[in-house]
Amino acid sequence: MTFTELNLHYSLYKSDHTRGHLLCEACRTYAKQLVGANNPDRHEIVADATHKAWTNFNMLPPDRVFAAWFTRIVRNKIRDYHRKARTRALNEEAAELYPESPFTLEQQQEMREKGGPLVSHLLNGYTLKEAADLLDISVRTAKNQLTKLSEEMNSNG
């Protein structure tokens, strides 16, 4: 399917609206060529691009070339899917590097309020030594503060 053939299908559709299924199929074929056979999200991109074009069909300016308009939609969808894939990969990497906390959000908030900056640094992923260095206190003092906080929280239930 070439750019010119896609425009021809559009012209035929404009003259005979019963040919919508042919234009839709031409759009799918053209989009598949733009996306490429090796793209793992090929089917989703083609479906999304075709759907977007079909739902926004009435927004196509009369002086605009249909194939150029549709090409732009497909390219934008490809870009969107690459961004999603990159974000998904970064989120998975972050989840591996920073595993979930064993504490609920309410417990973390309570510990932050009661434990002050030391606990806040620990919950943000710093080691005890790093947190102590940031607060300019000894590691022993930091351990004592944590022991006191732990006893206080255990006594409150």
Automatic annotation (TrEMBL):
This protein's record includes keyword Transcription: yes
Keywords noted in UniProt: DNA-binding, Sigma factor, Transcription, Transcription regulation
Coiled-coil ranges from the UniProt annotation: none
Single annotated GO MF: DNA binding
All residue ranges annotated as the RNA polymerase sigma-70 region domain in the record: 29-86
SUPFAM superfamilies reported for this sequence: C-terminal effector domain of the bipartite response regulators, Sigma2 domain of RNA polymerase sigma factors
One GO process term, biological-process aspect: DNA-templated transcription initiation
Family matches, as Pfam families: Sigma70_r2
Biological role stated in the UniProt entry: Sigma factors are initiation factors that promote the attachment of RNA polymerase to specific initiation sites and are then released. Sigma-S contributes to the protection against external stress, thus playing a role in cellular fitness and survival.
Membership in a protein family: Belongs to the sigma-70 factor family.
Official protein name in the record: RNA polymerase sigma factor SigS
Species assigned in the record: Granulicella tundricola (strain ATCC BAA-1859 / DSM 23138 / MP5ACTX9)
